[in-house]
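Hi Y.,

Following your request, here is the sequence exactly as I used it, all 370 residues.
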Amino acid sequence: MKKPLTLMISALATAAGLAAPAYAQAPADPVQADLNKLVPDFPGAFATVRDADGKTRSYTAGVADLETEAEIPADARARIGSATKMFTSVIVLQLAGEGKVELDAPIEKYLPKLIRGNGNDGRKITVRRLLQHTSGLPNYTKYIPPISELQHKYMEPRETLDLALAHKPSFAPGKSWEYSNTGYTVLGLLVQKVTGRPIGEVITDRIIEPLGLRDTYWPALGEQVIRGPHPKGYAVKKPGEPPMDVTNLDPSWGWAAGELVATPDDVNRFLVGLMDGKLLKPAQLRQMKQTVEAPALTKGWRYGLGLIKFPLSCGGYAWGHGGDIDGFETRNGITEDGRAATVAVTALPTSLTSAERVNAALDSALCAGK
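Below is the corresponding structure, written out as tokens. Let me know if you'd prefer a different format.
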């Protein structure tokens, strides 16, 4: 969801008097080895890997709590941030498959006069462009307050939309690519207008319950805690200051772009269900996997409709969509032959190196079972 903070997260462990764990020799399991490398850049890391035959393995490294040094539960939940976009996109594509939404129709058709101001115009922005980040709408997360001010603040979707529309478009619709959470706020409003129900309820009824995702949920209005077993999530306000516990926060500003809570195992189950055709008709799944160049992402990554295609070191590629929200970062993916993995860490990366280590851990997890 948000851009990484600007100082090294190793300060998190240092502030708590923790050091990187020492290993006499590298663990035999490459996934565990890569997860261990994430500490102390992050207080904790956890992952679940699913083989093509459905066998799953869970991993943890670091601690769940910097003060108590408690272990991370094997079935830990996390805020999954922008991985929520996959769920929102699936709903829009389901509605398209039912003939209730046209992907190449302007959003104006469904939400008249909503997108106006400073050159932003819903008559020129299609539903597809919102899904693939080619709408040009300014990204509202550039303009929200820092987490130290936002942690316990409730924000209506209209508030975040207004933050974006106070600024000029990044480019003319369809002329470039730029990641924009604003587009998914608009898509959430589209879903609610077409279905007549709240986006969280629609995602629950159409995705979470049919797939049996027992540890995935849309937070209730004003809910700030994470239900069930989970590690604490951390952030740093200023260099040299102790880490800030941001486990409990109001995720309303993320909404249709990033509000869900889930376990790595449930994210894998979602990906498997998606690719197995349990959520979308073949025509809509093909549309979701039609990608465009996304130059702002990691080299070689391409963006579809709420879905990212990225290459693997062992050959081939995977599909997924990571998420960043204060306190947690998640990365996930599924290969064409059904191998799936999700990795979570308990803070946002604060350097390119630490971010790349999370991606490397995901790559290792997806390649381990090949």
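Residues 192 and 198 are 6 Å apart (CA to CA).

Thanks again,
Q.
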